[in-house]
Amino acid sequence: MPISPIRLGVHVSISGGIEKAVSRARELGCSAMQIFSRNPRGWKVLPLPPQSIAAFQEAITPKDIDPIVVHTPYLLNLATPDEHLYQRSIAGLALDITRAAQIGARYVVTHLGSAKERSKAFGQERVVKALQVVLRQEAPVTLLLENSAGAGKGIGAYLEELQKIIAGVEINKKLGVCFDSCHGFAAGYDFRTPDKANFLAEEVNRTIGRERLSLLHLNDCGGELGSHSDRHEHIGEGKIGFSGFRNLLGHPSFQGLPMILETPKENPRDDFKNLSRIRRICQKISPNLSWGKRERGDE
Predict the structure, then answer these.
(1) For range 78-98, the mean pLDDT
(2) CA geometry: angle at 279 spanning 287 and 255, to 5°?
(3) Is residue 290 part of a domain?
């Protein structure tokens, strides 16, 4: 279900301890946040210290930042033909769901990976089998499948593909979708005009269903429409542009969803800049929107 009031945040660092992420999000005026629960580029994992779990839970107690989203590491590949990597990826996803539950996160977002030298049909089947295993565990967390940019044998670029995967999983009540604007645009979904945004909304309803769409990743795209280039850009500075975000966020089907920015962090002001741009776009769409607390540093 959509979360009200409007929830907007960024991906924040867990450097120095996972609990430090909450204060970093508040400093940016976020009312939602995304983190890695561990090193996103390594397999070695240490258990979350009990004191860090307790500190994180205490920090989020006011519930002014909600949802908390955990993103899985980049190394996971649920579609790979490599059996060793496949089993590590299944175990890694299960671990992230457990860690998300420990800290009180609402969602875990994962990429589905690539079938490499095998067919996409093979990759889709591998993903379904992996999800069947992972979703057997009981956890108060919803797993969100993120759409890909569609490069090579990447799985999950198209909504029909995501729906096929979800339908193939027997226990799918805890499955949803995270739509990444950069990936969607790179895969060929255009939403830069009202008519095209409406077509995308119709595609959502026709395939996964609006009830499965749980989160938006808002990123501009450095590549052209349909380029399959996963190159995130600052809001308004890529090929989607301000009009694209106005039309996407202005459509009723995409309103009320939590929004997370994964835009470039080239200097300390970048998160403030991109958050401010999305706030201004949303404020023009609905002047009476209720936002989370904003800090003085917001533009």
Answers:
(1) 98
(2) 70
(3) no
d(CA 39, CA 113): 18
Say which of 125, 203, 237, 262 is annotated catalytic. 262
- Closest residue by Cα to residue 262 from 162, 145, 181: 181
With respect to residue 55, please indicate whether it lies within any of the assigned structural domains: yes
- Write out the residue range of the structural domain in which residue 238 sits: 8-285
pTM of the model: 0.94
Is 83 noted as a catalytic residue in this protein? no
293 domain residue, yes or no: no
The total number of structural domains in the chain stands at 1
- Residue 139 · residue 175 · CB < 8 Å: no
Q: What is the pLDDT of residues 133-142, one digit of tens each?
A: 999 998 999 9
Known catalytic residue: 220?
no
Q: What was the pLDDT predicted at 291?
A: 52
Confidence of residue 1 (pLDDT cuts 50, 70, 90): very low
Catalytic residue selected from 19, 66, 96, 230: 230
Residue 146 annotated among the catalytic residues of the structure: yes
Active site residue 228: no
Give the CATH number for residue 70.
Answer: 3.20.20.150
Asked whether residue 143 is assigned to any structural domain, the reply reads yes
